[in-house]
Amino acid sequence: MLRKMMLAVMLVVVLAGVAVAGSDASVPRVYVLKNGMTVAVLEDERFPLASVRLYVHAGSAYETPEQSGISHLLEHMVFKSTETRGAGQAAKDIESAGGAVNAATSFDYTMYYADLPADRWLVGLEVIKDMIFGARFEPSELESEKKVVLAEIDRGRDDPQDVMFQDLQALMWPGTGYERPIIGSRERVAGFSREDLKAHVARWYQPQSMLLVVAGKVDAGEVLHKAEALFGDMKNDRTITPPMPLVRTAGARPEVKVEFGEWNKVYLSVAFPTPGMRAPREAALEIFAQLLGGDETSRLYRRFKYEKRLVDEISASSMTLERGGILYIGATLDAANLETFWKELLADLAGLKAEDFTDREIERAKLNLEDALFRARETIPGLAAKFGSFVFFGYGTGGEANYLRAAGQVDRKELQGVIDAWLKPGDLRAVALLPRDAQGKVSAEALEKAVAAVWPAGAGAAKTDLAGAKAGGTEIVDLGGGHRLVLSPDQALPYAAVSMVFAGGDMLLAPDEQGLAQLASDALIMGTTKRGAVEIQDFLSDRAASLSAASGRDTFSVEARYPSRFAADLLGLFSEVVREPAFAEKEVERTRQSQLAGIKRQEDEPMGLAFRKLFPFLYSGGGYSYTRLGDPARVAAFTPDDARRFMARQMRMPWVLSVCGEFDRAKVVELATSLAAWCGPAEPYAFATPEWGKKREEKLTLAERNQSHLLLVFPVPGTNAPQTPGLELLNTVLAGQGGLLFKDLREKESLGYSVTSFLWQSVHTGFMAFYIGTEPQKAERAMEGFKRVAAGLAAADLPETEVSRAKNLLWGDYHRERQRLGARSNEAARELVYGYGLDHDREVIEKAVTLSAKDLRDLAGKYLDPGKAYVMRIEP
């Protein structure tokens, strides 16, 4: 920890009127332009990528009630026309350079970002400047985009998590900017004018309130020069005083809000007010939240999910905003368990003391806090976001080092101070969303009375004194028997990722076994013949490592990520999990319950329901037609022996083990060789060519929702077909903010907030789908729009600018998606299992960028035929 903290320390000097932090190229540099704008540069040559971020102190918490939602609306409008670009051209210019652009609005800031190939970083800088300060706010575009935001507001009310958090905001922060949804209200958004948006930019977008971050394979001096040229002539025309922390008085009594609706589950949130950023005990609060419900080793997870099985999911987190924060506990459970869980949770919180946590738990929480910060450096955007946040919110250039130092000094005395100061029953605020059939059985009054009965004010408080490398060459090793090993050294970070990918998954199941592969994958890591689930969870958390298993439609995988200093421990556990899974009855039962809860949660969300039903609708028979999580009645009947039999079949399939990162080659080869000998020669396996379903339309219903969701699905060949490069390019033309579907159906016609296309392929089958979320009365127009776009692609060549944008975006996405070690290890294993080479994806793009507009027109004419498409509708 000390070594990592020292790496983050930065010195500040003044040079030629510009404040400069650091002079070594390996250390982030921070400059302050003469107009007060801050510029941070992080030189990093690991990938040919750059990330540009512009932060502005102008979020929803800065708005008056009459302005509610204007920051978010502005974020939308900057993608419209500017003085030099037409509507959508900003996004198109970034994508044409091979990048991706977006923006985000939060309570305390708005942030604009572009991730690009390293040699095009300046395009991001220029486009972001023009988007904001050259925006025209054309009245016709504004009216069109208002409809999109209004649809987004409706969409949010369809999601139980969004509904719950918005209700909690109003309870937690009454009378402040934090009480209102970031997105605003229908009434306010509908009334904003061009002049309102201009006034908002003029008021808040002052150079003194902005931070520009550029990270990646860039030159700091060049970035400073260009930033000065682009932003240096901007002036501050007013002084903006940093906001003061919220002052709260102790709560007199708890407050609970209960809502009933068409939910399958109870969605419950419990929160307590805490201080905001830069508070003295901020790190201690973060560690306390981790101990309480940060992962599977935490107190609440172990007690209520693992031991008592009263909840499907439970977690705790500390949310610190600029002026205040909350300690948040979230849970999903069955209505029948609510009364018992509520009382037991309150009793647990009432009696909680710092001495309840062991030294091992506290050190584990510290390690995982450090690990989360360290892993953010794995990608260029993560690096930019982490450092940018520390600088933007006033922690200083040494913010990360100071934060880690404070975390390292947290002890039980400080943890008890957190409990005594902020875990008080009178401050408790809670929201519960319940199924409609629970109405009359549960009330807010009853839940509030339970708090007074179980956790009276002052109970449980302890008397405490509160004073005071670049990647090397990749190697493939043939292990014999149909098994292979891929070694991809990368010394840039002291981490490694291991992926073991098998052919099989759902394809090994009979129709009445649907969901069994998912159950087996989840239960696989829940205990071995030598260690139980709790012991494995503790083992992983003590090493800031992760271990997972997953089953897909035609593959099965086991993966681990870990700091390389723990390689011996993790490779040993990896081998043990593969060879000696226990499938203990109690663990399989817990897994069954989680899977059944997952089915219900899927069916509460429009797109969750769509993807649950999509493949059974599209395909006829075989693993591709299965419902991945299975039928509830059948899942409930699965036994440990069922899981063992499935895994026995799965282990007889061919596999590839791939390792990426910093590792000992001899040890990895030893592991792979031993696993190959244990599995024995693989059985022959061929990826299936499934039949398409005969039914062409499917309509699903979700009661009491606001939006319709439409999918127009076109059958296409699989990844082994020569058309794959063209299909990838064609999908990229259609998808994204600069894509044809977005521009035609959202930008021009305001038919929906979310509009895109996506391409799914296995070896011998695939489909391209057009998707839109829209208002029910616009659904037919949206479907006609889909057909019109498809017909247009088949009728005429695309403009060269569209084709060029898509080609550049393919390359940009390729590099962005492969920054993480785990992504690279998984890709290598998966491609070899599918029968391709390690460079298959790169070769697909290399072929795609040679295609012409005529090639795409021919491809669209062949495959994007609405008369042969499948239609899925999810209606309210």
Provide a descriptive summary of the structure in words.
The chain has 876 residues and is an alpha+beta fold. It has four domains: 2-206 and 213-231, Metalloenzyme, LuxS/M16 peptidase-like (Cytochrome Bc1 Complex, Chain A, domain 1), CATH 3.30.830; 255-454, Cytochrome Bc1 Complex, Chain A, domain 1; 475-679, Cytochrome Bc1 Complex, Chain A, domain 1 (2-Layer Sandwich); 691-875, Metalloenzyme, LuxS/M16 peptidase-like (Cytochrome Bc1 Complex, Chain A, domain 1, 2-Layer Sandwich), CATH 3.30.830. The protein is 43% helix and 20% strand. It is built from 32 helices and 26 strands. The strands form five sheets. It has an eight-stranded mixed beta sheet, with helices on both faces. Strands 14-15-20-16-18-17 form a six-stranded mixed beta sheet, with helices on both faces. A five-stranded mixed beta sheet has the order 9-13-10-12-11, with helices on both faces. Strand 1 (12-15) and strand 2 form a beta hairpin. Helix 3 (89-96) crosses helix 29. It is globular and about 75 Å long. The two termini are 52 Å apart. Mean pLDDT is 92; it is low at 1-25 and 460-472.
Gap from first CA to last CA: 52 Å
Please mark out the parts with pLDDT under 50 across 5 or more consecutive residues, or reply none: 1-25, 460-472
Strand order of the largest sheet: 1-2-3-4-8-5-7-6
* CATH class value of the largest domain: Alpha Beta
Compute the number of strand runs: 26
The coarse overall form would be globular
**The CATH homology group name of the largest domain:** Metalloenzyme, LuxS/M16 peptidase-like
The CATH topology of the largest domain is: Cytochrome Bc1 Complex, Chain A, domain 1
What is the correct CATH architecture of the largest domain?
2-Layer Sandwich
Which structural class is indicated by helix and strand composition? alpha+beta
Mean pLDDT: 92
Number of domains: 4
Fraction in beta strands? 15-25%
- Count of helical stretches: 32
Estimated helix fraction: 40-55%
Described by strand count, sense and barrel closure, the largest sheet is: 8 strands, mixed
Q: Cα-atom Rg, whole angstroms?
A: 27 Å
